Amino acid sequence: MKALLLTALVPLLALTMSAPGPVESHVATMQKAASLSIKFKVVQAGASPQDYSLSLSRDLKLRLESPAKLWVSDGKTLSVYDKAKKLYTQGEATKPTLLKLLQNEPTWAWSAFLDPEFAKSITSAKPGEEVNQKGVILQEIKISKATGAVTQMFDAVAGVFRGGTFTKDNVQYFVQVTEIKVTDKALADTVFAWVPPADAKLDDGTVVAMSYADVLPVFQQYCGRCHGGGRAQKNLNTTNYDALMSSNTVRPGDSARSILVNAMRTGAMPRGGSMPKAEIDKIAKWVDDGAKP
After folding, report:
1. Which of 118, 96, 105 shows the shortest CA–CA distance to 29?
2. CA 177 to CA 111: how far, in whole Å?
3. Which region, left, alpha or beta, applies to residue 164 given φ > 0 means left and ψ of -120 to 50 means alpha?
4. Cα(155)–Cα(159) distance, rounded to whole angstroms?
5. Neighbouring C-alpha atoms within 13 Å toward the C-beta of 159
6. 48 and 188 part of one domain
7. Is residue 145 classed exposed, middle or buried when 0-12, 13-18 and 19+ CB atoms within 10 A define those classes?
C-alpha cells in the first residue's frame, strides 16, 4: 500500500518542484506576448501621483510617456521629446538602447518583453504577503539585483508583475498599475508614429539657460500640495512664476543664498517628505541660470 502511495506521489512532487516561480512566469509571459500596453502611476510619499504609459510591440516598437518626456520608437528611429523645453532628439532605435531605457525604474520589470535573459540580473526573489488590489490578488515578491532591491507585485492569474516599489536617492516610490494588457496581437503602427509639434525644435546640442517651464513639473510634484494655486501657504506659490518671484525666496543667479533652495537641501521642504537630489539640483541650476520665466 505504501509503495503504491509513493508511486502515485512521485509525479505530483515532480510537477510541483518543476512549476515556474513568479520571475520565470513573468519572463515567459512577456516573451510570448506580441504586445504590451500599460497605464500606471508613480507615487512618492507626500507628492502628487505622476501618470505614465508604456506600449511595446515586437520589432523594437516602443512608446513611453511621462509627465516630462516622451520616447517613441517606430522600430527604426527613436525620438525623445522634452515637453518643457520643447526640444527633441532622434537616433537609431536599437535593442541595447531600448533595453537601457526600460531597465531604469519604474519600467524595469517590463524590460523582460525585450530581454529573454531578464532573470539573470536577479540574485534572489522571495515571496511576501498577498494583497487584494481592487479585486486582483497580488503577491509581493522581494527581489535583490545588482542595482538594488525592489518589490514587485505578481499577478498569478495573468502571470505578470504589475507594479511595486523601488528606492532612489533614499526616497521610496510606488508604482501603481491602473491598466495592463498583454496580447498575442501587434499594436497598430499608428501607436508608434510621432510627428514633432509645430513649436518643437531639434536639439542641436546648444546649451540653453533653464527656464521656469523646465522646473515647473518639479514644483508641481513636490511643492504643489502646500504651495500651489489656492493652497499657497505662507504666501509662497511655487506653481506661478510671478507669485514665486514676489515671495523673495529666490535670489536669481545665487542658489546658495536662495531661501527656497536651502529649504529643499535641508529637508525643510517638502513637508513630510523629501526631494531627490537630482530634482533639487535642477531647481538650483534654474536659479543659478537667472531664474528666468
Report:
1. 118
2. 16
3. left
4. 6
5. 16
6. yes
7. middle
Domain end residue (candidates: 178, 202, 226): 202
Helix axes 277-288, 212-222, angle to 10 degrees: 140
Query: pLDDT tens digits for 216-239?
Result: 999 888 888 888 877 777 788 888
Residues whose CB is less than 8 angstroms from the CB of residue 46 and which lie 6 or more positions away in sequence, other chains included: 222, 225, 270, 271, 272, 273, 274
Residue type for 25, please?
A: S
Q: Which residues contact 232 (CB under 8 A, 6 or more apart)?
A: 243
For the record, the C-alpha cell of 181 comes out as 494588457
61: CATH: 2.50.20.10
Cβ-Cβ contacts under 8 Å for 242 (sequence gap 6 or more)? none
> What is the mean predicted confidence (pLDDT) over 48-75?
95
C-alpha cell at 168: 532612489
In a domain, 57, yes or no: yes
Largest CA distance in the chain: 89
Question: pLDDT digits over 9-58, tens only?
Answer: 444 433 333 456 999 999 999 999 999 999 999 998 777 889 999 999 99
Determine how β-strand 87-92 pairs with β-strand 201-202: parallel
